[in-house]
Write a structure and sequence with these properties.
216 residues; alpha/beta; Rossmann fold; seven-stranded mixed sheet; 14 strands; 30% strand
Length: 216
């Protein structure tokens, strides 16, 4: 699975802001939107394109680039935490169709970090996926154990899209490894890979609960 880590000073600057416990709800949400846009532009760089010839208003012909896959994108929003991230991605993919998945993980607390979480998907609305044509971007800002993401990918993979992308802000080493081993051809975009999970399954150092920090 190709891993794409956004390491530009701007991406890390925004990440630092949203990690900070003193960042308020409005600025946290704005930071998520900005990172969504940056991730979107990075995803564009991996898409198929062709060199074409056009004519300028001066009547001069010149060569340019057309990224065909930009018109064949479906963004899946794992509610509710991913909503600001999706808003940013839509700046890069204004023609994208959208789907939503509502998932709830069963909260547990033990002495050790959980190896997986029990996840229930109780609402799913995904547009028709054109086999071998559409590129799917599944968005979840925090990939902890990877259980939610794997459950969504398992559904999407059966629709035979051209390519599946994961767009996140922070992934745990463990969750990333689980997804990599299950789907080695996946394209995974994130800004940071954090080393640990706590005994409730939260990423450490992380940034807290992304949904609560965005919406209260």
């Amino acid at each position: 699975m190709p891993l794409f880590l956004l390491s530009s000073p701007l991406a890390l600057h925004i990440l630092t802001q949203i990690r900070n416990k003193d960042t308020d709800q409005i600025n946290f949400r704005k930071g998520m939107v900005r990172l969504g846009r940056l991730i979107g532009y990075k995803i564009v760089d991996t898409m198929d394109y062709k060199v074409i010839e056009i004519e300028t208003p001066l009547g001069v012909k010149t060569k340019g680039v057309k990224i065909y896959d930009m018109d064949n994108v479906v963004i899946i929003n794992i509610l509710r935490a991913a909503t600001p991230l999706v808003e940013g991605l839509l700046k890069a993919f204004p023609a994208a169709r959208q789907g939503v998945v509502t998932a709830r993980r069963k909260e547990i607390e033990g002495k050790e970090p959980p190896s997986e979480m029990e996840v229930d998907i109780y609402y799913k609305k995904i547009p028709e996926i054109r086999s071998g044509v559409d590129n799917i971007i599944i968005t979840d800002p925090m990939v902890a154990t990877g259980s939610t993401m794997l459950k969504v990918i398992n559904d999407i993979i059966n629709m035979q899209p051209k390519r599946i992308y994961v767009a996140s802000v922070i992934a745990s080493q463990y969750g990333l490894k689980r997804i990599l081993e299950s789907y080695p051809d996946m394209f995974f975009f994130t800004v940071a890979v954090d080393p640990e999970l706590d005994n409730k399954g939260y990423i450490i150092p992380g940034l807290g609960d992304a949904g609560d920090r965005s919406f209260g």
